[in-house]
Amino acid sequence: MTSGTLERSAAYWNKQAASEERWSVPVDAAAIARAREGDWSIILTPDKTVPRGWFPADLSDTRLLALAGSGGQQAPVLAAAGAQVTVFDLSEGQLSKDRQVADRDGLDLRIEQGDMADLSRFEDASFDLVVNPCSVCFVAEVEPVWREVSRVLRPGGRLMTGFINPLFFLFDHDTPGADRLQAQFPLPYDSNSPELRDRALALGVDEFSHSLDTLIGGQMRAGLHLIDMYEDNWPGADLAIDALTPLYIATLAQKPL
Ligand SMILES: C[S@@+](CC[C@H](N)C(=O)[O-])C[C@H]1O[C@@H](n2cnc3c(N)ncnc32)[C@H](O)[C@@H]1O
Q: Has this prediction a pTM greater than 0.90?
């Protein structure tokens, strides 16, 4: 990935965190107290909660990597539920939200800053579970991420990830006045392509649709076995397409024993 992409992504997410946007609002102390009592849920996509059956019955002793998963939401809840959580993210602003919740509520969180395509600081088979909320649209290539996840998972370990259906990127959801149901962009959408550079610079962040081949097939080629999936909508977002079809996907995959 170009360093420009990483720099823009970090700056964009630092700004999101500073303005407490949707993905950067930390959970409150009551949510942490409930999680400590076993009453918790998380999301990987905008709305539906992850089925509880995707997690081990007991999270204690689960070595969990919240990958590109900061913002003070999933990681502290999972730590309060008993997991040994490492939260890893590119954005210091986003990570500061997790630090804030950990300090406020006395949680033990390991906080690491970096690019999700490079998990080299973690040893092979060092996690039981990788939880990756919607984020791979910010990396130019997704298969290196799946390969790294597969490497750091122990045999029998699981990856749960949320991502955007590539069809979302056919449309212009951002330009005021655009016909938002008219297909505008060829796929795969790639912010690094010359015709999309100006748009990416205006949005302040690079985005990549990827293909279902790399998003789902790529997990299998990385050595993971698909176990389950679901689709989701984003109710409340100003997205014309959302009334017509779900465009978010979550998958659960396992590294064979
Ligand atoms: C939509 S947010 C996901 C976290 C959020 N708490 C949620 O519920 O979805 C996307 C996250 O991806 C992170 N991110 C973007 N590019 C990244 C990269 N190359 N490596 C690691 N994290 C990245 C952002 O900093 C941001 O925290």
A: yes
